[in-house]
Amino acid sequence: MAAMDVFVGRLDPEMCVVTAAADGERAGCLVGFSSQCSLEPVRFVVWLSEVNRTYRVARSAEFLAVHLLARDRRETAEVFGGQTGDRVDKFRQVRWREGYGGAAVLEDAEAWFVGRVVSRADGGDHVGFVLDPVEWGGRDPSGGPLLRLADARAIEPGHPVD
C-alpha cells in the first residue's frame, strides 16, 4: 500500500455530503470518493463506507442526495464527517428540506442533486451507489472554492475506522 500512497496522496478531490432517507430514518455523511461515471445517460457514483450509518440507511433508499459544500461551510462538513448518526441527529444542526422522493436536501450546499439509485457496486470496504439525477439545484457557479479533501483532513471521523 505504501507504493500506492505516492499516487493517492497527490489527489485532492472535492468532498461532498451524501444524505439518505428510508423507512422513516435520515442519515448523511461526508464522502471523499465520488465521480461522474457516465456521459449518456449522465450517471454519478458515490462510495459509502460499510461501517457508516448512512450506508445502512442508503441500502433501503430509492434516492440519495449529493451536496457540494463551499470551503467556508466547514462546520457542515464537521457535522456530517465528525459525528455519527448512531448517536446524534445531524439534521437538527443544519438547514434542510425534503426533496424529490423524500430525499434530504441541505439548504446551504453550493450545488446539489437528488439521484435515483440504479445500481450498486462492491468496492471492498465501500459500496458504490450509481445514481441517475432526477432533481438538482445550487447557487451561482461563480461562488467561492469548494471544500476539498485537504480542507477536511483534520476532521476526526465520526464512525470507527478499520
What does this structure look like?
Keywords: Oxidoreductase. It holds the Pfam family Flavin_Reduct. InterPro entries: Flavin_Rdtase-like_dom (IPR002563), NADH-dep_flavin_reductase (IPR050268), Split_barrel_FMN-bd (IPR012349). This protein is 16% helix and 39% strand. With 162 residues, the chain is an alpha+beta fold. The protein has a single domain, classed as Pnp Oxidase, Chain A (Roll). A hairpin with a 4-residue loop joins strand 3 (34-38) and strand 4. The model has no long low-confidence stretch (mean pLDDT 92).
Topology of helices and strands:
Blueprint: H1 2-8, E1 16-22, E2 25-31, E3 34-38, E4 43-49, H2 53-58, E5 63-68, H3 74-82, E6 96-98, E7 104-106, E8 111-122, E9 126-138, H4 149-152
Q: What key attributes describe this structure?
A:
16% helix; two-stranded antiparallel ribbon; 162 residues; alpha+beta
CATH topology: Pnp Oxidase, Chain A
Number-wise, the strands total 9
**Arithmetic mean pLDDT:** 92
Domain count: 1
* Broad structural category: alpha+beta
Overall helicity? 10-25%
Low-confidence stretches: none
Instruction: Report, as a whole number of angstroms, the end-to-end distance.
Output: 15 Å
